[in-house]
Amino acid sequence: KQEVTQIPAALSVPEGENLVLNCSFTDSAIYNLQWFRQDPGKGLTSLLLIQSSQREQTSGRLNASLDKSSGRSTLYIAASQPGDSATYLCAPRGTNAGKSTFGDGTTLTVKP
Amino acid sequence: ETGVTQTPRHLVMGMTNKKSLKCEQHLGHNAMYWYKQSAKKPLELMFVYNFKEQTENNSVPSRFSPECPNSSHLFLHLHTLQPEDSALYLCASSQDRADTGELFFGEGSRLTVL
Lengths: 112, 114
Hints:
heterodimer, A: mainly beta, five-stranded antiparallel beta sheet, B: mainly beta, seven-stranded mixed beta sheet, four-stranded antiparallel beta sheet, 11 strands
């Protein structure tokens, strides 16, 4: 059974800082790994999707890396802004039944 | 309309009521999912439908009854719920169940059971 851990659980930084969110998973048999953002009481917004054959993906100030063999992914946010405040979730999608398993998320607060 | 749309956004019901949650996707996807998100718990997969057929029921109590009349619509029928069923119910879709594409979510239906 896939287990997903996200560290840290919460993070508070001043505006402008670069930061790294970590995701680890126990089963490396995955199709892909997706990073999401969730604002309070809202649904999940897809940020980046990394296929199992890829090492990283970039979108604007976001960069996600994947090391499938070690079961790790990181989300790098450059020049953080207050609007980046949200909970960030990672979800590896297993090759067994194509199921995505979610971590508990990292709640990010960026202070002006 | 585009993306994944869920209605209602908020629902309050008593334990003896019967209500339904609706999800509609305009992405041409073939797989649809129901997830439950409770406070301080990770998202839990409830049901998966692929090409209108239920392919997964993650040990969900029978008081939750899904229905998928076509690839674009997914319902979750609710009856005799318990207060611990109060949660955010999220619908998602993807191209198909086992593909390598993205998972897209709706805004969720916030359910409160009194």
